[in-house]
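Record type: monomer structure entry
Structure origin: computed from sequence
Chain ID: A
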Amino acid sequence: MSQRLFLRLSALPAALLLLTASAFASNPLLFEQVRVIDPDTGAVSDPLDIGVSHGAITAPSGLPADTRRVAGEGFYLMPGLAEMHAHVPPMRAGQQQIEDVMILYLAHGITTIRGMLGESGHLVLREQLASGELVGPRLITSGPSFNANSVASPAAAADMVRAQSEAGYDLLKLHPGLWPEAFRAIAETAEALGIDYSGHISVAVGLDRVLASRQGSIDHLDGYGEALVPPDHALHGTTPGLFAINLVAGMDPSRIPELAQRTVEAGIANVPTQSLLENWATGDVEALMERPAMRWIPEATRQQWQDNLARIRSQIPEGMAEPFIDIRRELLAALHQAGAVILLGADAPQIFNVPGDAIHHELEIYVGVGMSPAQALATGTTNVARYLDQADRHGCLVPGCVADLVLLRSNPLEDIRHAREIEGVMRAGRWFDRAELDELLEGVERRAAGKP
């Protein structure tokens, strides 16, 4: 996917505003004397007033006398975050579970999610979220995945691309098990139709073919592990295991800079989901279970996560878990340093990654590998705006931008953990203050505990 220049506009055309403002925008609102955070520059403004009307940011002058006012003195206003590798429960899970997951995302400051395993019901859900019928973030959704079971031939793959494009999905999700001819059919058909294809790199396809394609994003840093094993090493071409963990002993870190540079030249983004892999490879199970966010997860799910973790760890070669995480962190740091596009994503809900909460663990990892707090926030704001070519969203805090905002009690540019200190979230002009967010979360916790 081409990365077009993102222009920070002082105003957007009225026609664009009408297209992007949400139908559920509430009454006008004024944030008074708030400091605005710009992830793109790492700057913090002096205290100023920010108006919101019809779902978009507007000049504070001209708002009606009955405008709702939010005291912003001492607070910080930043763009809402995007979770670019999210999962939405299947419709068979039930409406309440889906609604609870949406609440968890929103309450943690996430105003957009990219659902990476969709189904037809998610197209309806997308509209319900957009209209305000349901509380939650904006949904960008893929269709059912392209994998060894769903794709029988290159012709069938092309037909599946056309069918998902016609159905109205936003992107195509690639899973393992594809082969070069099938991948080529998917890529050529998707590019002709102008629909993004993103996700895994199948072993038979390999990183080289993907970097030569126009795939939008590589998720999980997939495919790099195999490419780090030199052709003359005994492990080259052997069964890689989950995310190439079987190949760690053969990976040559000196190959990382070249792969990072080739990624930059290809213009392909990466969605690391590093927090998930650290959970299952090296995370302390007891500490993971005691995270405060686990109170929002039903006991049956927590037990399932423990069982899955035990199964995964039983397959990790002895002594390879920590080196596996170290080399992934080195790769992530090199991609960032080379200027590759990094998009924020945690792959929740998955093993011990609670929707919303997991993104904040992901942000801490990004800072831990060398990003500044502003650069980490950019992975979920302005980087997303460039990737999606949407100048009115994801980091835009000037008149005309969609009002997806997070009000914080402390400055996250001083400490990325401050991004958790949420005083309120605005979704396309609808304001959820701390009391309302707490009420929503209490309902999620109560249902997770099996209480009415």
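Annotation 1: The chain has 16 helices and 16 strands.
Annotation 2: Confidence is low (pLDDT under 50) at residues 1-23.
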